[in-house]
């Protein structure tokens, strides 16, 4: 089809019944503002929200707010908020559905007042975020906003806000002026204690405001806003060229906001809402009192295996997670890392890690092109909770975290690789890379990563940094394949 029309409300009547089953009725009001409507939000929370509205009704449509760019907003606006999600199972089945949970869009960067008004609306009961780990602009060691961050400082000085926390606080400020009803804020990023973290960041942002403004504002926010943690799980790779055309071939309409993800979706939410919420619990989400056991399984099992696959797979020529998990030398290493070090560490925190074959089977879904270069981004923000924390606990218990150290060393090795011989990394990692290139060793890299990771020392007095340095030397000496074979024959 040469020029298929764009998906739109007018197209709805012409779409196959199974693709539009469950679309919310037109006119369902907005009850949620979501900051960061990337691929993950569109495939996960928006789908579950649509299902919750189908199960129980309610004005729970989403106002999707892009914090930095506006390409998603423009794509969604051109399609009346409609887009498609393809659930792609490893066994060959695809389920394509049209999602209509997004009823409004706003560019928080270009239309800051409209964004703040959306957060402040008395009909908004929940604000959710997926802005990536780096989007929190925090110092992991303190759990507060990174000191001396010029972007945060500029937001606090009163420019139209550009950081996620600055944008959220501006919205809360307008809500406080209207003395709006209680609000629940849910962080859906892969960060430890993400609800508590976001609360602390909002508090530290208020502390940067002039005292007569920031003090009363925080007092109002802390009394009227619940910051609940969540643990989200679904593999949703970045869109691929050709996705829009694939949808056009299936539906006869082009979709420039199409997303593809695995069929598995999990959402665990801390049950401390300040007000009403969608019936997410009726469509598979779990509301729990204590998130910690779920969080350790997610970060130390799923995400840690992803990061290890990325840093060790890229130098082996793997491009996707499926390539890495299917690699004859890397797969046994990942299995051993998981079974010997990662899963036991999550179990020690009360988690119930999946079996190794189930996990590798899921992540290795050969029908998803989940690029390792995407996962390799923001390593400085990701590795402490994924690999260093379990390794430190292993060490403190008198065991050698050899495999986790090899994975962290592979990150340091990637950063030491000349930029034209490795994928482009994010600015945070490039800063660490520059430090390493300036002859700082992996010990310093581990110090930079440490963040809140406690107890880096083992009984021998040689700490995790020493071990990562040893592992890096081994990688250089033996090559990646040789080191992996030696560690997990
Ligand atoms: N994609 C997945 O499989 C998946 C699974 C579980 C959790 N997540 C979480 O969701 C996050 C986003 O994933 P995605 O697939 O939607 O990515 P994406 O690249 O499609 O979207 C990222 C969103 O975050 C915003 N963003 C990026 N950097 C930012 C910054 N520094 N400040 C403010 N906003 C910023 C972008 O504007 C965009 O809206 C991940 O980082 C992770 O924390 C993703
Ligand atoms: O940017 P990240 O590393 O937080 O996310 C990359 C992948 O690990 C992530 O996308 C996983 O697919 C996801 O966390 C699985 O639930």
From TrEMBL:
Annotated Mannitol dehydrogenase C-terminal domain ranges read: 290-417
Entry-linked InterPro entries: 6-PGluconate_DH-like_C_sf, 6PGD_dom2, Mannitol_DH, Mannitol_DH/Oxidoreductase, Mannitol_DH_C, Mannitol_DH_N, NAD(P)-bd_dom_sf
Q: Where is this region: Disordered?
A: 138-161
Keyword Oxidoreductase set for record: yes
Provide a Gene Ontology MF annotation, just one. Answer: mannitol-1-phosphate 5-dehydrogenase activity
Keyword Protein transport set for record: no
* Pfam families in the record: Mannitol_dh, Mannitol_dh_C
Q: What Gene3D superfamilies has UniProt attached to this entry?
A: N-(1-d-carboxylethyl)-l-norvaline Dehydrogenase, domain 2, NAD(P)-binding Rossmann-like Domain
Highest taxon listed in the record's lineage: Bacteria
Q: Which segments constitute the Mannitol dehydrogenase N-terminal domain?
A: 31-281
Q: Which UniProt keywords apply?
A: Oxidoreductase
Q: Which reaction does it catalyse?
A: D-mannitol 1-phosphate + NAD(+) = beta-D-fructose 6-phosphate + NADH + H(+)
Protein name (record): Mannitol dehydrogenase family protein
Q: Which organism is it from?
A: Streptomonospora mangrovi
């Amino acid at each position: 089809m040469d020029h298929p029309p764009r998906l739109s409300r007018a197209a709805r009547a012409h779409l196959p019944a199974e693709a539009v089953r469950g679309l919310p009725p037109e006119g369902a009001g907005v009850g949620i503002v979501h900051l960061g409507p990337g691929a993950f939000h569109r495939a996960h929370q928006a789908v579950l929200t649509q299902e919750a509205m189908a199960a129980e009704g309610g004005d729970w449509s989403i106002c999707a707010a892009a914090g930095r760019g506006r390409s998603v907003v423009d794509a969604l606006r051109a399609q009346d908020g409609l887009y498609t999600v393809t659930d792609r199972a490893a066994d060959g089945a695809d389920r394509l559905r049209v999602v209509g949970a997004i009823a409004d869009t706003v560019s928080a960067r270009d239309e800051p007042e409209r964004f703040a008004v959306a957060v402040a609306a008395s009909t908004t009961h929940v604000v959710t975020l997926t802005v990536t780990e780096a989007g929190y602009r925090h110092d992991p060691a303190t759990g507060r906003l990174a000191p001396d961050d010029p972007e945060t400082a500029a937001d606090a000085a009163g420019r139209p806000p550009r950081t996620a926390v600055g944008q959220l606080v501006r919205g809360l400020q307008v809500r406080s002026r209207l003395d709006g009803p209680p609000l629940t804020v849910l962080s859906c990023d892969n960060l430890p204690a993400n609800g508590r973290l976001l609360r602390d960041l909002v508090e530290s942002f208020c502390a940067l405001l002039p005292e007569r403004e920031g003090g009363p504002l925080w007092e109002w926010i802390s009394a009227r806003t619940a910051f609940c943690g969540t643990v989200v799980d679904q593999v949703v790779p970045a869109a691929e060229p050709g996705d829009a055309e694939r949808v056009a071939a299936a539906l006869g309409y082009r979709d420039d906001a199409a997303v593809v993800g695995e069929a598995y979706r999990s959402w665990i939410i801390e049950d401390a809402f300040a007000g009403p919420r969608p019936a997410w619990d009726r469509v598979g989400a779990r509301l729990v009192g204590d998130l910690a056991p779920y969080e350790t399984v997610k970060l130390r099992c799923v995400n840690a295996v992803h990061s290890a696959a990325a840093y060790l797979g890229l130098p082996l020529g793997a491009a996707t997670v499926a390539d890495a998990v299917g690699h004859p030398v890397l797969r046994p290493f990942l299995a051993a890392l998981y079974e010997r070090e990662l899963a036991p560490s999550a179990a020690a925190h009360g988690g119930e890690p999946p079996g190794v074959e189930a996990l590798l089977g899921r992540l290795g879904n050969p029908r998803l092109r989940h690029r390792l270069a995407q996962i390799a981004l923001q390593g400085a923000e990701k590795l402490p909770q994924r690999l260093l924390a379990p390794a430190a606990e292993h060490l403190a218990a008198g065991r050698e975290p050899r495999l986790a150290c090899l994975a962290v060393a592979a990150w340091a090795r990637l950063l030491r690789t000349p930029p034209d011989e490795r994928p482009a990394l994010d600015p945070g990692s490039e800063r660490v890379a520059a430090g390493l290139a300036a002859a700082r060793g992996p010990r310093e890299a581990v110090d930079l990563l440490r963040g809140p990771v406690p107890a880096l020392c083992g009984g021998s007095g040689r700490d995790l940094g020493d071990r990562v340095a040893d592992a890096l030397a081994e990688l250089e000496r033996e090559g990646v394949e040789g080191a992996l074979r030696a560690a997990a024959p």
